[in-house]
Design goal:
The complex is a heterodimer of chains A (331) and B (510). By secondary structure, chain A is mainly α. Helix content of chain A is 77%, strand content 1%. Chain A contains 15 helices and 2 strands. The chains are: A mainly alpha (331), B alpha/beta (510). Bound molecules: adenosine-5'-triphosphate and magnesium ion. Chain A: The chain crosses the membrane at residues 21-42, 48-69, 76-94, 100-122, 129-149, 182-207, 228-246, 258-275, 282-302, 308-326.
Chain lengths: 331, 510
């Protein structure tokens, strides 16, 4: 009886979730095969690394967004908060001349504080997530411009900082395997995110809140506080994205960032996380982010103009959500 | 011979890993009330969902007035004149009562371009009056209690003037006087030749209202009988597949160890609660009786901190406490099971085990919030076995369980938490008769361990069966208190429950 109760779960469960994952994963593979055939320039180590590198920033943003979206909320501020975090890192390292690690901690903290404020606005003052984070988007954008004096902050005095994104620990270990650190950090962040979401109480409450917030509250869970925690986690991921971004550009660009939040949300949705909450995976988000950058990279190699690339991505989002709905109706 | 209204034969329905219906049959004549009974998970709701096109059958055939029909969706069923009141409430919480009733067929005016709200509200008013319902058509559904929402569902289904009306546990949250109104309406519909399918776990109702009874067990059709020819005991035996003994009245222990665990003084909440004072003893089951809208659920929510209170004091173990939210109530050792299973009880998209441990998640974590899945599994399997939850596994999503089995799971949620004070709001709602007596035994063993229970129920016999003490509420006030060892009668309780002295409003003194 006991074994049956748990065992019965295994085949039905893993088969289904495998199928769910397969949809996104399968499309990613199909895309890769398609572009490899269409252009001989696509499936090269350097190009694949390029794709991964361009996924890293959006990918980390999307990881963070996955958390709030699973609660049934949204964070529109991640794009500009990311910029604010880059700027703060720049201020610490270049303007104030503090050590690089302080700059990193400062960047992460900036993200955390922004997430914390959004979280408090949402759960203490009852402001809907859409509006609270829209406001935070403006605030962060403005602050980034004010603090930087609207000019980029360069990290030329601290060459180490560049290594965070562009160096290659893996390349040092395995000669020839020159995968930039940004990619490594992205995958580590994904593993951390996945563990948080599936193995810890934060993740469990995250899903519970998204599934039925009021029932969760009436089970004695301090939903308000947990939501603040979750928005803060999103903020930390955003801070990390900001650091990666700054390191990759070797500068904090205060006017960048707007619009990144939508790409992050798109990656999350393509990855099968539902905007209505209660459902989603980190693996899905990683695949979603990869699909987006494989698509843009492949289309560029095929010399499809930039404007058309955006159109295609738009249709892919429609398709992804439609297929997801179909599958759900069947279940 | 005239054709029956509905005939279903050899119906088979499988869900992933679950054989819900195995060659089931059912027949409904016009002008009859036909009960469909069986244990939780027997397949009653599924059978009726097949008839109304919510689910597609895998095999079998359906005949409507002698003609074979293929009901592929709910719209087809609606057109044929078949409507159903579902076990779970399906009203749009943000729309008004009238908007809900007329959704999809709103009265229009001026070349059908504009909505005719006036007409809609007028029609709704009429319908509400027929059912003696004292609510306004323009009230938002979210402001109504579960019982009233249930009444609105019933009115909505009736307003389609269907030939076949299926009621899936319509009375599960209703109290006697609303049930009387419902039964009066059913009698009228019968005279008009409407065929009614009546699903219920309240056995006493079957004798009162039904003409024939069909019993199902584990997805299998057992038998159909004339209600007049068969005893309730016989039906129960057929449902569970064996004779079960039913202790007449429980060997109640003395209860009330004269140690007050909870004391409420002068609790007030605008429009719902007026000057409520009572106390709860250690090892006691305190029943709260009353009609719809008496404020029982509101009282429970106020104590639990789910709603803010305007005045009043709460003492736990003689310590004054201030409870501003459920998480604090739980810290003080209070648990609360809501009456609204679908909206306030279940995480429908999550699995059985997560639902079971939702209130106790902290006990299943090691440092840094790391979750111990093995222990969660162990605990949920224990609950599943103890409460005989019918589910293929503890990894099954709650939405795939039958209504009664969902109820068992969320009841189990509070049993896993070691609360001193448990407030149960309609704990046996939708639970079959066999499981019910198991749950009564469980509650009795809980109080024997020194826990205290407040039990809200609209089923008076249930309250009389297991409470040590009973308080009765009416219009937000306590209008009566009884020790259950005297020979109190249902009539005495009903007298208090309808004691509407809203005139000379008693001023609050303290
Ligand atoms: N959508 C579904 N997916 C998987 N299993 C299901 C689904 N719907 C019902 N079941 C299973 O089919 C069986 C019959 O369920 P059904 O809801 O018909 O029971 P019921 O007789 O109405 O019980 P109750 O008295 O508790 O309402 C149950 O074991 C249930 O778990
Ligand atoms: Mg049912």
């Amino acid at each position: 009886m006991k074994e049956a109760m748990i065992a019965a779960k295994k085949p039905a469960f893993s088969f289904k979730s495998a199928l769910e994952q397969f949809l996104a994963f399968g499309s990613l593979i199909l895309l890769i095969i398609f572009f490899s055939i269409a252009s001989s320039n696509f499936f090269h180590f350097s190009n694949i690394v390029g794709i991964l590198l361009s996924t890293a920033v959006i990918g980390v943003l999307a990881l963070g967004s996955t958390f709030v979206i699973i609660t049934g909320g949204i964070d529109l501020s991640v794009g500009t908060v990311m910029t604010l975090c880059s700027v703060m890192t720049g201020v610490f390292i270049t303007t104030l001349g503090l050590p690089v690690y302080i700059g990193i901690i400062g960047g992460l903290l900036t993200g955390a504080v922004c997430g914390l404020i959004s979280g408090i606005a949402i759960s203490r003052f009852g402001i809907p997530p859409f509006i609270a984070t829209l406001a935070m988007m403006m605030i962060a954008k403005g602050l980034a411009l004010v603090i930087s004096g609207t000019k980029p902050i360069y990290f030329t005095k601290s060459p180490v900082f560049m290594e965070i994104s562009q160096g290659s620990l893996l390349g040092d270990l395995i000669p020839g395997f020159e995968v930039p650190n940004a990619v490594l950090i992205f995958f580590i962040a994904a593993i951390v995110g996945s563990v948080l979401l599936t193995r810890t109480i934060i993740g469990r409450y995250n899903f519970a809140i998204g599934s039925n917030e009021e029932a969760t509250r009436l089970s004695g869970v301090n939903v308000r506080n947990w939501k603040i925690v979750i928005y803060t986690i999103t903020g930390v991921f955003t801070g990390l994205a900001g650091i990666l971004m700054a390191s990759r550009l070797n500068s904090a660009q205060p006017s960048l960032g707007m619009g990144y939040e939508l790409e992050a949300i798109a990656a999350v949705i393509i990855g099968g996380t539902s905007l209505s909450g209660g459902k989603g995976t980190i693996v899905g988000t990683v695949i979603g982010a990869l699909i987006m950058s494989v698509l843009t990279n492949g289309l560029r190699i095929l010399s499809v103009p930039q404007e058309w690339q955006t159109v295609v991505v738009g249709f892919v989002i429609l398709l992804a959500v439609y297929v997801d709905n179909l599958r759900r109706r069947k279940a | 011979m005239e054709h029956p209204l509905v005939k279903m034969e050899g119906i088979v329905k499988n869900f992933a890993g679950v054989h819900a219906l195995k060659e089931c049959e059912f027949e409904l004549r016009s002008g009859e009330v036909h009960a469909l009974v069986g244990e939780n998970g027997a397949g009653k709701s599924t059978m009726m969902k097949v008839l109304t096109g919510v689910y597609q059958k895998d095999q079998g055939s359906t005949f409507y007035k002698g003609k074979k029909v293929d009901i592929t969706d709910t719209a087809t069923a609606q057109k044929l004149g078949i409507s159903m009141i579902h076990q779970e409430l399906n009203l749009s919480q943000d729309l008004t009562v009238a908007q809900n009733i007329f959704i999809g067929r709103e009265p229009r005016k001026a070349i059908r371009l504009f909505l005719d709200d006036k007409e809609m509200n007028r029609k709704t008013e009429l319908l509400l009056k027929q059912m003696n319902l004292d609510i306004s058509p323009t009230m938002k559904v979210s402001e109504l209690t579960v019982a009233k929402q249930q009444m609105v569902e019933i009115i909505k289904a009736m307003s389609y003037e269907s030939q076949v009306l299926i009621m899936d546990e319509p009375t599960a949250a209703l109290s006697d006087s609303e049930i009387d109104d419902l039964f009066r309406m059913i009698e009228q519909l019968k005279l008009k030749g409407v065929g009614i399918v009546y699903i219920s776990h309240r056995m006493a109702e079957l004798k009162r209202i039904t003409d024939r009874i069909t019993v199902m067990r584990d997805g299998v059709y057992i038998n159909t009988m004339q209600t007049a020819d068969v005893s309730i005991d016989r039906i129960i035996a057929m449902m569970v597949g064996r004779e079960i003994y039913q202790p007449a009245k429980s060997e109640r222990n003395t209860g009330g160890k004269s140690e007050t665990v909870l004391q409420v003084k002068g609790l007030m909440r605008r429009n719902t609660l007026q000057d409520i004072s009572f106390s709860l003893q250690k090892g006691e089951i305190l029943g709260i009786a009353g009609l719809i809208g008496a404020g029982r659920t509101e009282l429970a929510r106020a104590i639990f901190g789910a709603d803010q209170i305007d005045a009043g004091e709460i003492f736990i173990h003689d310590q004054k406490v201030k409870i501003t939210g459920p998480h604090q109530a739980v810290k003080h050792g209070i648990g609360y099971l809501s009456e609204d299973r679908k909206h306030l009880g279940c995480l429908l998209d999550m699995d059985v085990k997560t639902n079971v441990v939702l209130a106790t998640m902290n006990d299943f974590t090691k440092g840094l919030g790391w979750i111990n899945n093995n222990r969660i599994s162990e605990t949920s399997i224990k609950i599943v076995e103890e409460l005989t939850v019918k589910t293929p596994s503890i990894g099954q999503k709650l939405k795939f369980l039958s209504g009664g089995n969902q109820q068992k799971v969320i009841l189990g949620k509070w049993l896993t938490r070691d609360c001193d004070i448990l407030i149960f709001d309609e704990p046996t709602r939708g639970i079959d008769i066999g499981a019910k007596s198991e749950i009564y035994k469980l509650l009795e063993s809980l109080v024997a361990q020194g826990k205290s229970i407040i039990m809200i129920s609209s089923e008076l016999p249930e309250i009389l069966r297991i409470s040590h003490r009973i308080i009765v509420m009416c219009e937000g006030r306590i209008t009566g208190e009884f020790n259950n060892d005297d020979d109190i009668t249902q009539e005495q309780i009903m007298a208090c429950a309808t004691n509407r002295t809203s005139s000379a409003k008693t001023e609050r003194e303290e």
